[in-house]
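Example A, followed by Example B.
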Amino acid sequence: MKLEVIGNINKYYVQTLCMIFFPGEKFSEKEEARDDSPELSLMLSEREDGLCVFAELSIGDRSASCEKIYPLRDDVTYDRLKKIAVGDAVLSICREVVNYRPSWGMLVGVRPSKVATEMLSEGMSKTKVKKTLVSDYFVIPKKAALAVDVALAEAEFVQAVDPLACSVYISIPFCPTRCAYCSFVSYTSKRLLDTIPDYLLMLEDEINMTFDEIRRLGLHVKTVYIGGGTPTTLDEVQLKHLLSVIDKNIDVSTLEEYTLEAGRPDTITEEKMRIAREFGVNRISVNPQTLNDDVLRLIGRAHTADDFLRAYEMARKSGIPIINTDVIAGLPGDKFASFSDSFDKIIKLRPENITVHTFSVKKASDALKSFSHVYSARGGDVGKCVDYSQITAMHEGYAPYYMYRQKNTVGNFENVGFAIDGKKGLYNIYMMEEIHSIFACGAGAVSKFVDFAPVNGEKRVIERFFNQKYPYEYLSDNKNEQKIEAAREFYVRRGLV
């Protein structure tokens, strides 16, 4: 896509708006863009009384243009007005040319409820926030209501920020097979799986160093999350050793939440569940993604729907109190009838958490190579699937408690976590809302050091530290000491300790 921007405009914001209508497009200012590639010109003029935006879009023999004036407003900051003006102009011409209205309007970020949270914190009523999302941001009413519901669910955690709280994330980037939709740094070949023993030794050192530093800084850990990949790719002996390392570093009974991802049913055994319960794990993920065996085969999952049901029963019998299940709307080969059937069967199991993802096309995924027409702006019947999951979940006593979005999501829809009352996935909220620091261990892990409520009117301050992406890099030249130094320097510099 050829893009020309003139004026004080965030170009990346414009690109993300364009990708709602033209998913998978690459952007160019050069003449070598495809002949049939969309071309967008955008100009912003700043005036004393407001803003003027001119936008023009052409694709093939279709074109549209608009010029709009946006007066200054007392109820909107200048930066927010600029974002609204640019978003309105781009959406207006794209909708005219493509004949498509995106559900989330001009909200393009990872956290669509963020704007709702900001407006609620400014004293707006729920009704006013919903109306503003619809009128200013072109969000359709049911999505505006969802954004407000999630913002209110998260508010109790945002309002109770503890500057000395933190969470710990531990990465096990290995899987038994690679799913077609996956782009995570996870490894499946025998050669790479053979590195697991050495990886665990290195990870043990990092876990010990991380908890030592947390204690030195005077912080307290609220949640521990073991993710991947698929942590239950580890055998029983390896899993027990990993959990024992954590157990030596913290009294797990003091944790608000202790999660082990067991996302692949084909990696779950009764003994692994028993070990997890013995070491204090109180939340586990058992993820079918779909209960359609044909779709499971198509996306590279080495298990069946019956395998999931057996694994779920093992998890339930283990006594682990909270079970999360993930499903994905819009998987290649899946349709509304099979998605709704899967969702109905899962909700009858009464897991404490259900996370409904929308299929997202990742650049590094096999799906991009294997399936034609995988990008989809409208998403076919995916919107119907998403609506069904949300209506059904709430009818069955589940409430939405966290939400996020990804690039190139089919139909531009969202991922939503639902929970029974009092059973929210706390790490998900802390991580997504960036409420406190996350100390991350292992390959591909990203630590986030957070000063949520700085003094002197500053905005929240976040600094990230990236571990090596791949296990072989992690094994050959880890950054454990650099991460510890970065954490210490951040907390001292910010005056938090």
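Example B, a separate protein, is given below in the same form.
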Amino acid sequence: MGKVADFLEYLETERRNSPHTVTAYRTDLEQFALHISPKEPEKADAAEIRAWLGSRAEHGDTARSIRRKISSLKSFYRFLQREGCLTANPMEKIIAPKMSERLPSFVTEPQMERIMERMESEEDSFETVRNAMMVETFYALGLRQSELAALRLGDFDFGRLQVRVLGKGNKERMLPFMPDFRDRLLAYVAVREASLGPVKPESPLFVTAKGRPVYPMLIYRVVHEALETTSARKKSPHVLRHTFATHLLDGGAELDAIKELLGHANLSATQIYTHTSIAKLKKIYQQSHPRE
């Protein structure tokens, strides 16, 4: 696995990919290496790669999962070519399976209002206030889970109503927020200080009851419980990011502006939000059709 290790190091040090991305590449390449063992991955041919992808399909991997594995192998073999370890790239003969289009899952505006009202009405313990603030922060800023976990109090400029967010590839972006959001965030900070002591600018914004940074499973659990009564197909933090983008689009925001707010590298990633909610379609239909 020498070349695989070199490739993963390249992703971490030169490409500066996130730990989550590097872990995904590592998992895919370790699975492939196990399949063709004792042969090294860098010596595999297109037939062996197809056989492995076929075996993954038989194990129940979705088209999306297989496309990701193909992407991992493509990156790996391109790296080997740049390093002069390969003359021919076996991935040139591999065709990715087609993937069915699914609209992003999101929460309707009335449902979102009910979620926040319910969470804000719960007992004012540190954890309940924190949970409500985490959900509102996802919805107000459209953050990824890793971005929310990385927030520090010092990232917020409460005078200018903006926050600095560290996104994928360590790219920074500045996001605006509303005065009401600022007031609720400062109220959360006051509750946290009353429970755990002063909050320094460099301290993580969201922490556990023991003062440690929140972790992915905790974040997921809080959001999943908050979305339990909604019609969203999924109940993950990313649903709140989809909800943020969908509500902006329904409110008249330009796609280019949504792209910048989400931190997408190109507009194609944002275009999944050009779907329109059924509620909006019904409203347009009722207002526009000549036969009411």
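On Example B: The longest strand covers residues 162-166.
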